[in-house]
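Subgroup meeting minutes
Present: P.N., E.W., G.H.
Scribe: E.W.

1. P.N. recapped why we're keeping a running log of single-chain structure predictions: easier to compare across weeks, and new members can see raw inputs and outputs side by side.
2. G.H. added today's entry (648 aa).
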Amino acid sequence: MSNKMYKSTALWDKWIQENNELVNKWKQEVGESALSSDQNQRRRWWSSEFYKLLRKIQGLPPLADMQLELSVVYNACLYSIALSEVSEAELLLTQATERVLQATGDDPMASDSPVFWRKVLKSVETTALNSCVLYIFCLQWAIWLANCRLKTIQELQEELSSLFETLSAGAGDDMRYSAAAGKSSDAPLLVMDPRRLHELLQICTFMVQGAERLNEGQSSEALTDLQAASSLPAPRTLVAYSHLLSGSCLAQMSRPQMALQCFRKALETDSRCVCALYQSMLIYRQLGNRQAEIQALRLLHSTLMLPSATETVVADTLLLSPPLLLRSQSMSSLLSVPSALTVLHSLALKCLLHGRVSDSVEHYLDLLAALHSEHQYGVKTENTDSHVHAEVPSLPRLPELYLEAGTALLMAQRPVDCVALCDEVISTTLEMLPEKVVLEEPEERGEAKTGAVWKEGEEEVVMLLWTGAAYLLQGHCHTHVKDWKQAVTHYTRCINLLVKVYFKKKGFQPQIPSTDMVNEQRKDLCILQRLKGLSLAGRGISFTQTDQLKEALRDLQLSLQAFPECVGAGLWYGEVLWRLGRKQEAAACWEKTWSITTQSTVEIVPVYLQEPQSGPLLDSSELRHRLQELGPTQSTWRGTKEECPITY
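Output recorded in log:
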């Protein structure tokens, strides 16, 4: 008997030494390269070594003193959780706690987690295993948090509170992280101090609870949770996150300035907290502060381009980093940011819409170069950070980017470059266009008139829109250089494409879409009508420059039928009437055009379908001077629908 006891003790000592050597080697390796590129590969190796040791120990029946076994279980589970192998870790914990029940003489039971763990904790309450079981209970808490099982955590709130008290009282000092200086110890060592693990779990739990409440609209309650989290000791990353989420609560409570202060604190705490910068940009956009919004976009893009921006931030040598524990959908949504390419596109577009044309051109050209490069950005249009998977803006398709960039180039008075980009679009899409596109009215359903593009004929309409817009921009380019013949040619090509689209109402024959259909039907028809109106206006204005007034009158009239809010068409229509000697009608037409009050379409309509700011323009002050000389208008403008019954 004594010989068996000697062998058992010798094995125990050997296994303790093996465990401690692994822990010390790991600590030495982390100190040398805390953020090595093969970090997960090395963690997998350490996990394998601890699992091998655990299989040796569990080859023996469970003993009353399971300190060594539970220590190795703790170490092995930490690596599994760090590798996101949560189910394997949970299985290992279940097996370990069942062996604890066998060692204490209690029967293992199959039950839900709260009941099972209450029994385990009660069975060791007055034994030497109490502190060891509490440590692996921390790991179970981590698993619940990683799996977003907040209800289970709340059900065991009392036990978790006592866990905090036990750890704070210093119970089980022999099991703690006592090899911090690499000293040998007769007690099994742990790869992570359970007290630090508890602190991490506590603050992450408060944050996830706050995020869930914020998602449910309970801003005040969420703010209370986050204030509790901010009072706890935590890594810099989590302190920044607490400021970020507090700002999100204040933003939801309609306190944008206070929210901005919180986002600023988050960035001051951790400059890598790019989600705070993104949320600040959204607040500036909401407030209509264009300059601050553009500056925030520029800073966000430059930050995302830094190599460290998307690296997982590890707090000191903690195996469990915050992202592993903040996986709830609500949390991910609050921590999401667009990709660097998407931010660059937003920056380019905002600069274009708000008059910073040269900056816009530079950003668009950088964006197109990045998209065509095999090296820059790693050819990724989405961020690879674990948090960046919620709903955030994404990049438009490449032809649309070309059209936006072409518009910027045209506004920068670079028509040749604009024509080249439009040629790229046309060469890609023209051969894919059908001879005819018939859009049928859907069945009467709740979603039939939501304004979304219906799937039938969707791709054909999109292709036709891109090709037509490319011809429209090329027409604008030729107008810019006063090549009226080429301008008419390209506007005509756009018009010829648009007459391929028919709309079929139930029980009727297909017909060319009209303005009255657009008002109550599809958004894509509205865009097509706008495109038709702009192309007819462009051609009509080109005709005025070659004194083809009859053709100009026809096209400008048809333009106003398709797109009544087209200011350029209205003013030039009046100009043609004036030149034809119909001055009263011209005056009434100008008055009507100036009285048009439409909502700003700058942020709604694609930038390449805005009215052109180049080419022949009429001076409204000069037109008003003509009206003063003409005297009071004696008749109102009735339109002249009966004069030109031709329609497209």
